[in-house]
Design a protein that fits this description.
With 319 residues, the chain is α/β, with parallel strands linked by helices. It has 2 domains: 40 residues, no CATH class; 237 residues, Rossmann fold (3-Layer(aba) Sandwich), CATH 3.40.50.620. It has 13 helices and 10 strands. The chain has a 6-stranded mixed sheet with strand order 5-4-3-6-8-7, sandwiched between helices. A two-stranded antiparallel ribbon has the order 1-2. A hairpin with a 6-residue loop joins strand 9 and strand 10. Helix 8 packs across helix 12. The longest helix has 21 residues. It starts with 11 loop residues before the first strand and ends with a helix. The structure holds adenosine monophosphate, FE2/S2 (inorganic) cluster and zinc ion (ZN) (2 copies). The site of one zinc ion has 8 residues, from helix 1.
Length: 319
């Protein structure tokens, strides 16, 4: 098949645009959409220093390089942050991911910070998994949210960018409808201004970008990234999420553009309505242990509370 824009062979079909693109036109089209979306949705309005959370996977790695390339046009400075979650049992998943994230920070020549869950917080996701019966992913998700916010503040950033893509968002929205998690749906947007005691704005520049396009782009550009999935992604709750993701991907092949419609309708019409219902003046407290904000005026934040339980379990069950 020939490229829709020139005489070269196409390497990629964009079914929802009825386009076939050669390597150069695909890369060009992808770059232009990235900067257009960033400007159209005013992702970096008033941002000066943007911390990019890099896991070493294709999405956040691609985002790091793209944001770095357009940083002058957007008038922002880019810095990097990665967390060593201590997921290594048998797989060395975290060691490999952190190594790759650092390689990318060096290629992009950006200032960066590595946070080590073991050294900095005295626990790891492997030990949380083996010494307690908590699902690894819930401890991991909570830790990432807390640490990325705190690290961005420490690095004097005003904005935190994560690599969540269109497929992640479609899956999150659909599963929110199925399980009725309307409060978290109300809070999850492409752009979340600082709220409830936090200082950092959070943005998701790939909110409307399909996962398989990011993968193809990362390969064509030759970025180093980790292909392996997290070894805990086969846990019970995660399997249900994966099935929802597969179903959405299947529907997308039969109805091209369905995922973009789902996520756009949510972002433009449904989320604002949910936000009106669920945004209440919450009593924001200050954690007695770490000094960071707590929800519902609690004395101890959820992260410190889980961390202390995990450290206690490690001590009683033997480290
Ligand atoms: P996940 O929660 O694994 O779906 O990842 C969503 C986004 O969170 C990624 O695209 C990254 O921007 C960020 N992220 C996930 N894991 C890490 C990590 N270990 N270090 C830094 N950022 C991360
Ligand atoms: Fe957090 Fe898998 S990346 S449990
Ligand atoms: Zn072409
Ligand atoms: Zn705390």
């Amino acid at each position: 098949m020939k490229c829709s824009l020139c005489e070269k062979e196409a390497v990629r079909e964009i079914p929802y645009m009825k386009l076939f693109l050669c390597r150069e036109h695909f890369i060009d089209w992808f770059n232009q959409r990235f900067i257009r979306d960033a400007k159209r949705y005013k992702l970096f309005e008033k941002s000066k220093r943007v911390a990019v959370a890099v896991s070493g996977g294709k999405d956040s790695t691609t985002m790091l390089h793209l944001l770095n390339e357009v940083s002058k046009q957007l008038n922002i400075e880019i810095i990097g942050v990665t967390i060593d979650l201590g997921i290594n049992n048998g797989t060395k998943y975290s060691s490999k991911s952190v190594e790759i994230a650092i390689d990318n920070f060096k290629i992009a020549q950006v200032e960066y910070k590595v946070i080590d869950l073991n050294k900095d917080y005295n626990f790891t996701i492997d030990r949380a998994k083996s010494r307690t019966n908590r699902p690894a992913c819930s401890v991991c998700g909570l830790s990432k949210r807390y640490i990325l916010n705190a690290a961005a503040e420490e690095m004097n950033a005003d904005t935190l960018a994560t690599g969540h893509n269109l497929d992640d968002m479609a899956q999150f929205i659909f599963s929110g409808y199925i399980y009725g998690n309307f409060e978290s749906l109300a809070r999850n947007s492409m752009i979340n201004p600082p709220e409830r005691g936090y200082k950092i704005k959070k943005v998701k520049p790939f909110f409307f970008t399909p996962e398989n396009e990011i993968l193809h782009y990362a390969i064509l550009k030759g970025y180093p990234f980790i292909y392996d999935p997290c070894p805990y992604s086969s846990e019970f709750g995660s399997v249900a999420q994966e099935r929802i993701g597969d179903m959405l991907k299947n529907m997308e092949t039969k109805m091209p553009g369905m995922m973009i419609n789902l996520v756009k309708t949510f972002e433009k019409q449904i989320r604002p309505a949910l936000h009106n219902i669920y945004s209440k003046d919450e009593d924001v407290g200050k954690c007695k242990l770490c000094g960071r904000p707590t929800s519902n005026g609690r004395d101890i934040c959820s992260f410190c509370s889980i961390k202390n339980k995990l450290i206690a379990a490690q001590l009683t069950n033997g480290l």
